[in-house]
Amino acid sequence: MITDNNSMEYRKRPVLFFDSGVGGLPYLLHARKQLPGERFVYLADRVNFPYGEKTVPEIRNAVFRSIERINRVEKPKLIVIACNTASVVALSDLRSKFNLPFVGVVPAVKPAADFSDNGKLAVLATLRTTEDIYLKKLIDDFAAGKEVKRFAEGNLVQFVEKKFFDTSKQEKLDLLSSTLHEVKKNKYNTVVLGCTHFLLMEEELREVLGEKIRIVDSRDGVTNQIKRMLESYNLISKSKTGEDNFYVTGNDPPEKRYKLFAEKFGLIPAGTVSLV
Ligand code: DGL
Q: pLDDT (tens digit, 9 = 90+) per residue, 122-156?
């Protein structure tokens, strides 16, 4: 694995964050704060969004195709699959297919189980993730004996991806209040954000859930894993050169909201990556 990584040139290659849409952006932001010497690039697979409603083979094909194409454009030295759905479904295949280090994002069930006092955990994720054997295994391995309920929240994913900039704070709070009604009513005291999109609503989620319910995500674990991997492959860059580019898949010009998301996260809109 990786043969020519000792050159300065190779270390200057970017770290790629990938998601079906904009969900991976808060993860990129978190990593960038701790790795200031790295260049970060982002690809949103707009063409195949949403992954959560697709079959396993459809998701695998979509992820492979996107990674293959962006590899040609940006030649990343490490790839973060900043999408729980894609990680759960395709991470091990990606590792065998591409000669690159991968970091995945999966629901933070273990830390959540360690925190939960009354043993009641709610995992919010996409339909695919909630049904996948991978999540079932995570729960069996790390939260045995706890009451864990999975909530498929595809509507919330759509809302974040498509309506984020067109809605007021009050509309966001209203949507979350009805989405999280059952979580609050049944006194879950820990909520796992098992879909990266939900982190874009972190502030509103905290407001709706209140102080007594703990919200858990996997940003710390993911950033630490990126650092560890870069160090172990001798790939850490000390000084950054080049722009942090933001791409979407497809051929049509990106919708305005992608430009707004790129700006919000300090990335440069860099256009499209064709999948054909
Ligand atoms: N952001 C993705 C995740 O973490 C899923 C969004 C989608 O359904 O495409 O699972």
A: 999 999 999 999 999 999 999 999 999 999 999 99
The arrangement of secondary structure in 4-105+220-273, i.e. its CATH architecture, is: 3-Layer(aba) Sandwich (3.40)
Give catalytic residues, as residue numbers. Answer: 83, 195
Q: What is the pLDDT of residues 239-262, one digit of tens each?
A: 998 999 999 999 999 999 999 999
- Ligand 1 midpoint to CA 234 (Å): 31
Site to probe by mutation for ligand 1, drawn from 195, 217, 248 as the one with most ligand atoms within 8 Å of Cβ, is 195
Residue 256 CA to ligand 1 centre (angstroms): 20
Provide the residue count of the chain: 276
- Ligand 1 proximal residues by C-beta, below 6 Å: 19-21, 23, 49-52, 83-85, 126, 129, 157, 195-197
- Closest residue by Cα to atom 2, ligand 1, is 83
Of 272, 227, 222, 238, nearest in space to 42 by CA: 272
Among the listed residues 191, 177, 182, the one whose alpha carbon sits nearest the alpha carbon of residue 148: 191
Q: Please give the full DSSP string across 119-184, using - where no structure is assigned.
A: SEEEEEE-HHHHH-HHHHHHHHHH-TTSEEEEEE-HHHHHHHHHHGGGS-HHHHHHHHHHHTHHHH
CATH 3.90.1570.10 for domain 109-217: no
Proportion of the chain above pLDDT 90, given as a percent:
93
Give me ligand 1 centre to Cα 10, in Å: 30
Domain with CATH 3.40.50.1860 in the chain: 4-105+220-273, 109-217
Asked whether the beta carbons of 76 and 103 are under 8 A apart, the reply is no
Helices 56-74 and 84-97 cross at an angle (nearest 10°) of 60
